[in-house]
Each structure stands twice: as structure tokens, then as C-alpha cells.
Amino acid sequence: MLELSNVSVKYGSFAAVKDIDIQVGEGELVVLLGSNGAGKSTTFNAISGLQKPSAGDIIFEGKSITGLSPDKIVQAGIVQCAEDRKLFPQMSVHQNLIMGAYVHRKKRKQVKESISEVYELFPILREKKENAAGSLSGGQQQMLAIGRALMSRPKMMLLDEPSIGLAPLIVEQMFEVIQKINKDGTTVLLAEQNAFAALKIADRGYVFESGSMVVQGSSEELLANDTVRRAYIGA
Ligand code: ATP
């Protein structure tokens, strides 16, 4: 479904991502692992059009999306849920969700259906639908960011560190919801530092170090890999 071939991304002369190859099949849940600064967010930004690759090609459903604008990439079916969530803090939960349906703004019935689906997935958001997004807890804001991303009815969702800054119990719920979104038919590419929890729900993973992809394999293989265990699982 998604294929990155020999993709590199530079900030000025600094190569943040070097010659990476990644494939994600339809229906898969794939995780990118790596410490701070390894290049995961940069890779996401290259896929979602926020950062132009300096080399390589990104193919989605058989067509090149390399260098397309972010709105064209959302229209193609890929939505990114960024690490810093990028909510509109003064606007209500409901209004934030409506904003997520911008690409479908003329299909009012569909927008209503999508909102109901998001409220079913996250009942707490229905309870708080009139509250300002900025007044929600960290976990609820993350749910809202994911809910808003779902409003564009993506084929593929890029989730950048959804567990960051959340309490352990909430992290567990977050991973359960991500798994459910995937089982309901959305392909997921996840970036995480929480390697153990991510590999428990993922089909496969790629490990990044200093902008290069150094190990790849099924979740079982990565959970058993000594380098991965030492560096990311603390075992
Ligand atoms: P994190 O979880 O901290 O976001 P990451 O694996 O997602 O880590 P990136 O954010 O992609 O890593 O960063 C990769 C490298 O690129 C880092 O060395 C970072 O300092 C650098 N970098 C990221 N964004 C920029 C930018 N806008 N300008 C210059 N350098 C940047």
C-alpha cells in the first residue's frame, strides 16, 4: 500500500533520514522504533508532505506521492496525527472533530456518521463535546487528536508517539484503541519509543538509529532481537 524507496531527507546540509526503505501492506500495523532524534518524525513528515525528501520515492497505492502538498496527501487517504497533537485549544471538542472532516466538508451526512463513530470509540469525548479542547487531560487530548484524524476517513494513519507523556494506564488504553482502529480497517504506521507496548500490537517493525534503518522484522523477531531488547526494551 505504501512504499518508501531510498528516501533521504535533509535539513540544510544535515541528513536527518538516510536512504531508507519501508513497506506497509494494506491492513497492517507497522511500528517505527528508535530513540529521540532517530528520524521517525522526519520520515512521517516526508510521507505526509510536510517535508520534501531530498532523494527517493514514496509510492501510495501504486502512485507516487513524493513532494505532493499535505492536503493532496490527505485526499489520497493518508492522515498524520502529530506528536504535539496540534489541536485548536480554544475550540470545543466537537468543533475540533469537524475541522478534521475538512476534506469531506460537503458530505454532511458522512461527517455526522464519522462523528458518531469517533464518539463510539471514545465515549469520554462525547461527554466532553462542548468543552474546550485545551481543558482536556493529556490522554483525552490524544484521543481527540486521533479522533480528529479519523474524521478524514483515512486509509492509512500515521501516529507519531501517541503514548508520549501519558500515565501507564492511559497508555495501555491508547494502544488498545490503536489496535481496534487497525482491526476496523485502517492501516496504521506508528512511531514509538515505548517499544514493548508497540511491538505487542504491531505486525512488524523497523528500527531507526541516527537517520538510518538498522533492523527490521516481525514483532516476534524484534522482541527476541538482542540489540532491540538492550536498546529499547531495557531487558
Ligand atoms: P523525536 O521522537 O524526538 O521526534 P525522531 O526519531 O522523530 O525523534 P526527528 O524529529 O525526525 O527524530 O529528528 C531527526 C533529526 O533531525 C534530529 O537530529 C533532529 O534534531 C533533526 N531535526 C528535526 N527537525 C529539524 C528541523 N526542523 N531543522 C533541523 N533539524 C531538525
Automatic annotation (TrEMBL):
Which Gene3D superfamilies does this UniProt record tie to the protein?
P-loop containing nucleotide triphosphate hydrolases
Q: Which UniProt keywords apply?
A: Amino-acid transport, ATP-binding, Nucleotide-binding, Transport
**CDD domains reported for this sequence:** ABC_TM1139_LivF_branched
Task: List GO molecular-function terms, semicolon-separated.
Answer: ATP binding; ATP hydrolysis activity; branched-chain amino acid transmembrane transporter activity
Residue ranges of coiled coil? none
- SUPFAM superfamilies listed in its UniProt record: P-loop containing nucleoside triphosphate hydrolases
Q: Which InterPro entries match?
A: AAA+_ATPase, ABC_transporter-like_ATP-bd, ABC_transporter-like_CS, BCAA_Transport_ATP-bd_LivF, P-loop_NTPase
Q: Please give the Pfam families that the UniProt record associates with this protein.
A: ABC_tran (PF00005)
> Is Nucleotide-binding set as a keyword in this record?
yes
One annotated GO biological process: L-amino acid transport
ABC transporter domain segment(s): 2-235
Q: Does the keyword ATP-binding apply?
A: yes
Entries under PANTHER family matching the protein: HIGH-AFFINITY BRANCHED-CHAIN AMINO ACID TRANSPORT ATP-BINDING PROTEIN LIVF
* Record-stated family: Belongs to the ABC transporter superfamily.
**Name recorded for this polypeptide:** ABC-type transport system ATP-binding protein (Probable substrate branched-chain amino acid)
